[in-house]
Structure of Alkyl hydroperoxide reductase/ Thiol specific antioxidant/ Mal allergen:
Amino acid sequence: MSPLKAFAIACLSVSMIACQPQKAQTAKPAATKTISAPEFSAVALDGSSVSSDELKGKAYIINFFASWCPPCRAEIPDMVELQAEYEKKGFTFIGIAVNEDEDRMRDFISSNGINYPVVMVDQQIIDAYTPYAQGGLRSIPTSFVISADGSLSSVVVGAQSRTAFADLISGALESGGQ
């Protein structure tokens, strides 16, 4: 990893106010303006390729999280269940692991039965998503909901319930004509 990349990731980690107990906030882009999903490309920890190009036509949620974050950990069982329920309908979660060690994250994925791709955060992903979070990408968990039509439908800061995630997924699938 280049020193500049390591510095940028360290700066993001330091600047994030992680795991604060707060009411989840949802920001929806203005109804009159369609915002295209941010572009990204990465390799998941299982070796699979994950990119916005490969996800075209699918609804997905990009979820910035960490294994050491209690609200993040609380969301994962619901996300695993919802991934199994909605995957055949054209949906997936993509986990973005923040401030993590790869080996520790692989163990965390295995021990929690995570059934969706997880990638390690990098500067390209940070740069792609930060402009769409009000005030920047400052806390985790933060989720970016992408509709099947390729538009950014909402940004959600804070832990979500199963019902809240299910509603976001249904809306993203419907917006894309699924």
Observations:
- The domain at 3-175 is CATH 3.40.30.10 (Glutaredoxin).
- Residues 82 and 166 are 7 Å apart (CA to CA).
- The first strand starts at residue 25 and ends at 27.
- The longest helix spans residues 70-86.
